[in-house]
Amino acid sequence: MPHRFENAEEWAKRFEEPERDAWQKPDEVVKALSLPADAKVADIGAGTGYFAVRLARAVPQGRVYGVDIEPDMVRYMGERAKRENLGNLEAVLGEPGDAKLPEPVDVALVVDTYHHIGDRVVYLKRLGEKLRPGGGW
């Protein structure tokens, strides 16, 4: 059974702690991706949008799909995108076996999520089918 992340506001306190930036280095990760301004990106297991909001800022003419299987996280991330005026960030309710991406993406980012995926081979195969030609993770 997958771990549950209900009550997004409580999880946000933990996920968005400034101390996390010191070890996770999100800005360095996003910079290392060298994304073009119009890239389409999927953040798998996006939670509260820790990486998704940074990705959305990095691709102002692109699109970011913040995918999570927890409905409350998807709600929270969608509200956060509105609060932060990130019209290019779409919160997506995925399923344990399928990200449910609405269109192919250039890059799929999977951070702190892999261990939560049940059948990784099937999930990553499906995710790979949603990568555009030349896309990657």
From TrEMBL:
<feature type="region of interest" description="Disordered">
    <location>
        <begin position="1"/>
        <end position="21"/>
    </location>
</feature>
<protein>
    <submittedName>
        <fullName>Methyltransferase type 11</fullName>
    </submittedName>
</protein>
<dbReference type="GO" id="GO:0032259">
    <property type="term" value="P:methylation"/>
</dbReference>
<keyword id="KW-0489">Methyltransferase</keyword>
<dbReference type="Pfam" id="PF13649">
    <property type="entry name" value="Methyltransf_25"/>
</dbReference>
<dbReference type="InterPro" id="IPR041698">
    <property type="entry name" value="Methyltransf_25"/>
</dbReference>
<dbReference type="GO" id="GO:0008168">
    <property type="term" value="F:methyltransferase activity"/>
</dbReference>
<keyword id="KW-0808">Transferase</keyword>
<feature type="domain" description="Methyltransferase">
    <location>
        <begin position="41"/>
        <end position="135"/>
    </location>
</feature>
<dbReference type="InterPro" id="IPR029063">
    <property type="entry name" value="SAM-dependent_MTases_sf"/>
</dbReference>
